[in-house]
Specification:
- This protein has six helices and two strands, in the order αααββααα.
- It is mostly helical.
- It has two domains: about 10-35 and about 240-270; about 45-235, f41 fragment of flagellin, N-terminal domain.
- It has a two-stranded antiparallel ribbon.
- The chain is rod-shaped.
- The relative contact order is 0.17.
Length: about 280
């Protein structure tokens, strides 16, 4: 063993170990502060890249869920409109049947006709106002509602619109239809029944579309949750392990400082040689 005042090998070695311990301690404290064992590419480039790609996919699924929810809401509004129209048609059939009675007096027939035309016009009002986010699936202005079904935007789900306007192929009652006479009322009974059957069939189609959107939304949410859990497995810190590691490193740090202090005292022994 050589004694030198210029070179203190023991202190250099102690400082190297202390610096290494300090680096590990900084990393552990960073993991505890952020909750992440891989918070940046510096920590683990490969894992960070994988996690970022999965985060991008999860963000894409968030947009997919929003798109599906918008589509579902548009379908729900159309279903509500269709159900109201179906109820109105039932009432209109009742009025037409009553007006088909040849024994009615003029005042009664006029009262029934006034009720009938009010119900008829209400169908037009419902169709016009069945709008969500600019989409109206019951007035013939659009053929279908479309929503995203994949995070890359390449797949979509659709539901066909149903035109429930008066004088259409589903509601065949004319915008000018009345039951002002017994003959008109008798003729309209079959037309109203046909329209009611058509509307109920359209409601079934819209309902199937709503179910399709709901299933896709549930699946997408589960998939997003699974990917989020996978990202956590890759980058989240185990706080119990980090806590134990922190205590261990703090002890090593204290011992390293003590070892460096001892090594720094070594040159003092050289003075004893010159006493």
């Amino acid at each position: 063993m050589s004694f030198s005042v210029n070179t203190n090998t023991g202190a250099q070695v102690a400082l190297q170990y202390l610096n290494a311990t300090q680096g590990q301690l900084d990393k552990t404290q960073g993991a505890i502060n952020s909750g992440l064992k891989v918070a940046s590419a510096k920590d683990d480039g490969a894992i960070y890249a994988i996690a970022q790609n999965q985060r991008a996919t999860v963000a894409g699924y968030s947009s997919v869920i929003n798109s599906i929810n918008n589509g579902s809401s548009a379908i729900d509004v159309a279903l509500s409109a269709g159900q109201s129209i179906s109820d109105l048609l039932i009432q209109m059939k009742q009025k037409a049947l009553a007006a088909a009675d040849s024994s009615l007096d003029t005042a009664s027939r006029q009262a029934l006709n006034a009720n009938f035309t009010a119900l008829r016009d209400q169908i037009a009002t419902i169709v016009k106002n069945a709008v969500f986010n600019g989409f109206n699936l019951v007035d013939g202005s659009t053929a279908q509602v479309t929503a995203l079904a994949s995070a890359d935007g390449t797949r979509r789900i659709t539901t066909a619109a149903q035109n429930l306007k008066l004088s259409g192929s589903i509601v065949t009652i004319k915008t000018t239809s009345t039951i002002s006479t017994q003959a008109k009322a008798s003729t309209l009974i079959a037309t109203i029944q046909s329209s009611l059957t058509n509307v109920n069939s359209a409601l079934a189609k819209l309902s199937s579309g709503a179910a399709k959107f709901s299933i896709q939304s549930t699946f997408t949410q589960k998939l997003s949750d699974t990917l989020t859990a996978g990202i956590g497995n890759l980058v989240d810190a185990n706080m119990a392990q980090e806590s134990a590691k922190l205590q261990s490193l703090q002890v090593k740090q204290q011992l390293g400082v003590q070892a460096l202090s001892i090594a720094n005292q070594a040159p003092q022994t050289i003075l004893s040689l010159f006493r």
